[in-house]
Structures
1.
Amino acid sequence: MMSDSKSHAEIPILDMSKTLDSSSLSSLIKASKVWGFFHIINHGISKELCSQLHSISKYLFSLPSETKLRVGPFSSLKSYTPHFIASPFFESLRVNGPNFYVSAKSSSEILFDKQDSKFSVILQEYGNKMEELSKKILRLVLMSLGEGIEKKFYDSEFKNCHGYLRINNYSCQEIMENDKVEGLGMHTDMSCITILYQDEIGGLQVRSNEGKWIDICPNEGTLVVNIGDMLQAWSNDKLRSSEHRVVLKHIVDRFSLAFFWCFEDEKVILAPDEVVGDGNKRKYKPFVCLDYLKFRENNERGRFEKVGFTVKDFAGINKAHL
């Protein structure tokens, strides 16, 4: 149990329908370096589509545990993460791109007695929109690193990125008055960027540079974007992959959709000289993306903090060696 947080993050809002002007660029630079989080609006994801996904997901997670475990960790698909893997209060279904329809169908054929393509069709639509949105956001984030960075490095460094989706459900049977339960422990994301839809329940918190937990409250019509470990390393820490967590404040299920836009597994991550900058020292040794993913999977900090380690633990150059 943890005492209640009363702080809220005033993170910038980026309008995806408008050209990035100097004011918006300045806000994006600050958001990416200080918080590692920002909101986006006019992103092209309709309220109706999110509502459809929410409705289908409610049915999915209401299925008996033995049914969901047919695609669990010991199945051939391994698409479902049950309670007590990452947290006692967290469960999730993974859908892989680029063919989200096929990935969703593989799970739905096992989970649902009555076969209906609606689940797969909706996830294909959402996944496709997320892919296009991720590309746009990544270009803007690269622009925040300096003039010419996006133009020079987007195609050469990021053209083989891929995405996957996690449908998340958080549930808690009992919460003490004035307390809250940690639904998912402190972690950073192993992506370049993550795009999150969270329902009105909220619960997402980001850790500030001072170590305080700050609420990122849900706003209707907005999505949350955060920088991941891969982009932090590629930018030589000019972009921040912030530690964050989910807290449960109410005895009601919390729903979220997280889309992770990632480097290809064989990608060697090394910040370009132009990004490091003249006179600056490298903060990371070169590393292969898949090696870092395996490191995170095989190292734990505490019972439920499988994601407690970060890219600095894996590839950071010790200051004593600089």
2.
Amino acid sequence: MVYAVQRYAASRPWAKRVSQLYVQALQPSAARKEMKEVIKRELERAAQVFAVEQRTIVAELALAESWGCFARHGRVISHLDDGLAQALAHTRLPSQLPDTLSLPADAFFLHVPGGGGAFVSHQPERRALLLTLVEEGFSRDAAQWLHESDGVEALLVTYPGELAPQIEAVAERWQALLASVLNGLAMMTQPKLERELAWQQGAPQPWVEQACAPTCAKTRQRGRSQLLKAGFSEVNFCRISELDAARAYATQGYWRRQAFGEAKANSRLVWVAPK
């Protein structure tokens, strides 16, 4: 499969330059100004052929910021497996996110099967998450974004504050994906969650076997190099082994807070699975 974040890289003429800016900059703020200039030049060039709408400009700036942070922090992709995604789709949102998050990186892409995904940028000093949601069909046509803006929704969520007032203004079309993303972020704090780093589906098996060679570093490096040059990524697959994607749920799952620590001064979220 091809992830939305990979389709972004293949469809935007500035993707490579923006990633370089964010990787090389001492601070993201230093890259942000130049990133805007790069996109402005490209959009002005595109406007000579297509009418570029204001909403397209806004969406592309939000995406470029998220893409730059994604590149800066190692291009990490997390993939909720089908069984987990199905269970989380039948789980009510927690009233608050966990007090402490357990994320694979400070910026990464979270893939939700059947729903789309989100660029997640963690701002720990603000205790905030910048979420840029993209739909399942994001950039399937490489030139679509020029004449028909890709569906994008960006919002800032702080934690551990109440979630409801922060997300109530989000359009209905995004609510299901947003709920899955927020539930997925909460799930990353759960001890029962299994995480496996593996090459994305569709990667040539001989190259994968080379990249995973247990005894020869040169073979591993050769396999990794072949996979990366061909555009394949390592992916953090998130699953809970007992969940079945084909299962039909009769009741919703939910989150409860469990007090712990000295004098029960701390709390954590505990997931109660749907049945």
